[in-house]
Structures are given as C-alpha cells and as structure tokens.
Amino acid sequence: MSLRHDPPARVLIVGATSAIAGETAKEFARNGAHLFLTGRNAGRLTAVADDLRVRGAAGVETAVLDAADVATQSPAIEAAFATLGEIDVVLVAHGTLPDQERCQEQVEETVKALQVNFTGTIALLTLIANRLQAQRHGCLAVIGSVAGSRGRRTNYVYGAAKGGVEIFLQGLRSRLFPCNVTVLTIKPGFVDTPMTAGLKKNLLYADAGRIGRGIHRAIVRRKDVVYLPWFWRPIMGVLTSLPEIVLKRLPI
Amino acid sequence: MHPHQSWGRYPRAEHTGVVPVLWRSDPPALSEVSGKLLPFAYGRSYGDSCLNAGGALLDVSGLRRFISFDEARGVLRCEAGVTLAEVLALIVPRGWFVPVVPGTKRVSVAGAIANDVHGKNHHRAGTFGAHVTCFELLRSTGERLLCSPERNVELFRATIGGLGLTGLILWAEFRLKRIPGARITMDRIRFSCLSEFYQLSRDDQEYEYTVAWIDCLARGRALGRGLFLRGDHVAGGGGAQYEDGPAISVPVDLPSGFIGRATTRFFNTVYYHAQLRNRQRRTLFYEPFFFPLDGIGAWNRLYGEKGFLQYQCVTGEDSESAVVDLLEQVARSGEAPALAVLKRFGRIPSPGMLSFPRPGVTLAIDFAMRGSSTLKLLDRLDRIVAQAGGAVYPAKDARMSGPSFQRFFPKWESFASQIDPKFSSSFWRRVSAA
Asked: Which ipTM score applies to this complex?
C-alpha cells in the first residue's frame, strides 16, 4: 500500500511538551502526519513544532492549553478540530508527578495534583470523546501509569488520579466501541524524563524514545491497554494479586 | 541517565550539581547556579575538558530538537544537544552529509563546535567549525548573543574550539554537503614503514577521506607499518537504515590489564596481515567506514575501571623524524598502547582561536592508564611535539602541563579574554595555571 494514497494522519497531542509525547510525536512526524499540539508554554510548543516539521510532519499547529484550567480546554480543542477537520489520533499526555510527602502534609498539594492529573483530564476526555463519537472513527490514547494499578504508600496520590482516569477510560472504551473509536490506556513504568529528574534511577528506568515508539505501535495496532516497556505487565500482575494483608506490610 | 564522566574515564570528577537545560526558549538562570559552570552533553571528550570538578555541569542532552532544514541549500539548524547520529539519520536519505565527522557519531553538535572536531577529510574540508554559519550563545549574564563570521566575531572565533568556556551554545546552524548516496568506496593499502605512509599521503588531495591505522608496537625497519584507508562517497544504499543503538555493548568493566602489550601485539599482527593482497578495494555503507567503533557500545570499558588516555598530537609538515621519535618512544616504553591512527592534516584554516589542527601529520594513540609510568611517557612525547612545533589536542587530553599548553596554543591569552567568567573546567584550571 502506497503512503501517497493515504491522507496523512491527523493527530492532536495534549501536553505535547512532555518528553514521552515529544517522542511519540516524532514517530507520527516521520510518517508525515499533520499535528496539532497543545501545552502550557508557547515558547516550548514552538520548539517542539519546529522539530516535528524538520522530521517530516505535513503540518504542525499549536495552541496554549492548561489542562488544569478547564476553561482553556474547550477553545483549544475547538481550534484543533477546526484546523484538522477530523482527527484520527488524540494523545492525552499532560501530567505532573506530585511529591507524595508534601501531598500528605498539605491538602492544597493533593487537590492540585488531582486537579491536573484527574479532574482536568476527565474534563478533557469528555470533550474529546464527544467529538470522536460524532465523527465515528479515531483513537483516543491516554497516558496512565503503572502507579494507577495498585495504591502504594510511596505514590498513592498520583496513583489514585491515574487509577481514576483508567477506570473512566474502561467505561469510555465500551461506550465508544460501537462508534469505531478505540480507547487506548497507556501504562508506562519508570521513564527517564524531566518529570522524574529528581528521582534516583535504577535498571527499571526506560528511555523516553522507547516509550514513544511503543505508544505509536500500540495506536497503529488499535490496542486497548499497553504496558511500556512490556515487562511491567507481569510485574503489575504480581503486584495487583498481592492480598492487602501482605501489601500493607511492604515498604513500597 | 548517563554518568557525567569523560570517555577515557580518567580522571574521575565529582560535580556539585548537574543542571539540565531542556528548552532554548527558557534556559535556566546561569547566574543563580552556585560555583563554576561547564556545558556537558554525552561525555565523548576523552580527558578532563568536559569535566568541572568541584563545579556544576549544564547538561544539554535535553536540547535535542531540530529547528530548520533548508533542503535546497543544505543548511541545518538544530539545538545544542542534537547528535551527529540524529543529523545523519535525517539528512543522508535526502542526499546530504555532515561536512566533517569525527570518529564517533555519538557527539553533540555543540560539542563538535566546542572541540572544533576534524575528520578523515581535514585535508579537503578543514574542521567542523569552518562549516558553522552561526550559533546562539547564552552568557552567564543572561545575554543571548548571535555569533557568526559577521556578528560578535571574536566570540564566534573563541567559541569554535573554545571547549565550552565562552558560554552555553543553545543552538547552531551549519552547512551540509551533497552526496551521491549512502555508500563509500574504500581502498585499503598495506604499507610496511613510515616513509611509505608519507608517500601514500602525498596523494591525499585525490581522495575525500584518508586515514591510516598503524601498528604502534612494530619496531626497527617495520616502525610505522600499517594500513592506509582512503575513500569517497558513491551512489547506492539509498534508504539508509538508521540503527538506534550499537549492535552489541560491553556490559561491564573488564579487568584493567585486559588491554596490554600481549593483546595489542596479537591484534595488531593479525590485523596487519588480515588482507591477502597489499591493496584491497570495496564498497561499504558509510557507518562502518566512519564510525567503526560505534558498533560496540561502551568500548571504553575494555580498559577497565582505571580508564585510558588518548594521546593525539600534530607535528609540522616535514616532520617525519619527529613521528619516528614518537613511535620509537611508544614502542620502547613498556606501556600498553592500543589503537593508533595517523593522518595528514591540510592547510584549510579554522576560524577557531584554540583550534587544534594545523598543517602536518597527526598521530593518535590510546594508552591503558597504568599510573605514573604512562603519564611520564606522555610528558616525553610532549617534549618531542614541542620541539617539532606541533600541538596536543585538548579534547583528548587529561594531563598536559600549563607551559606545554601555552606553547602549543599561542593565542590562548586572547582566547582567555573571551571566556565567560562564570565558566571553567578541570582542563582549563590545569592548563591556564602559570
């Protein structure tokens, strides 16, 4: 099949200045996609957009969107659909990694973390899901986390937000299935990115490029759930099957 | 995730901090970082020019985006931390090549400028810096200066080959060259002594790329024997496959004595005699021609945890006797030299004040680090180089003395006036000392 006969994929990325989103976007750009990027910082969006144009994107547009601020979402999403017409792939990649200890001490920190990683995401997904349902095709790919599979003492605020989003996606997947829309839950493990810059690295850390290629592949193959790298699926299989009576005694 | 050490892993340095630089639109406020600063990308400098013991590093590996590619004119603009590997993966399938590539593609563009790197085509193309059209330099005052042959000329000339001391390069633009395809036609010619090398290298102008491997343990009449490689770009190999990482990697440090005289002698003898005829011609993909060692990840681990030193010097144009002296010292020394490379530099000047290449023959030899005996040998080599009016390459150096450096680089004082006062390196503190 010649690529020339295929119209370029139209891709919307929310949180496009994140390292994982950037790496995924490179895969789409290499394949000549037309991209619409949103993020909080206009200067950074420009840097990402320039890069994707050089790498082969058919076109790149940008708009400023703060996922934590629900009021900015609708205009940016409207602009994306107005620019691209219909959208084949939406990647929702924004997020922050809150400091668990500060969240425990300060209610405001916890609420802020949930605002970005849960409430804002849910609002966004609601908007986008309705558009995709109306156009009756497309893929909605959302970055969750292995942290969302099981609450752990070291990371449960972030885990609760991601876990909540993943349950929302399960329902959304069933709802959109009859409309030919795929919902992909992406569950990365530890990734070496600016978000994790302050953490001590170990052998489980993966390079963002590897995760980006994995996301692109999962989207193309219309997967429902993907663990990246793959070895997190068995690890989480073990972790989720541990009874509470054991887990609560573990220092993880 | 990479440790902030140099490629030779000697000396080791403790840094007070590593500041990631992620966005050219909002770089960190350099004046607020405590201590002296030095840019760092992938640690491919061999010695201590990329180290800043007791100070901080500015890690530019996050500045890894392209900015523009003028495919008609062959001009590429990209951020500081983009690697030559990424540049080649982008441009080779479109019929362009980097005008000057060093022996590894895993270096950053800013590092190629800061070390004013050279390649197998120095005799025809000069250094990397000669192809740089402009770059943006962030000074610790927060000033962002566009430097080019027309604007901020002194800073432009100081930054090319300036070892990262003049400020932080945020992005750079350089010219590319047209190629007919991704393949190289290569002649490999055996030569039995040094004067044969000199004879072969007289024809350099007829070939785009030339370099020689030599058996640094051969002595007497065989002194300086080796294999002469020369090549040119040819058509074919079109949709060049880009491999992301090396095919194999050295997973752990080998024992420090692994590369010794016995292993080197064995390897050198086998390699020298491996081809049956004295002349061999073949066509190959550009990667193994330019970057044979990139196929093995972390090959520096072969030298063990004590690390190794690469000694690279250049001697004057009629310098055969100096090269003979150098090779004799090495062969006699009892040290463990491994890979040795010889190449004739051309006369194309670099804009860089501290640029290393100059007309003459350059010799590069890897030495397993064995402590003071290794360092003493290199001091003896320095004296031969100084007498021949040559120089030692800072990008490879971990030990030359201040007086030697100042003799090798007579423009060092005008260079020093362009240094950003907040920037320094282990190398610079050593060689600028009286």
From this structure: 0.91
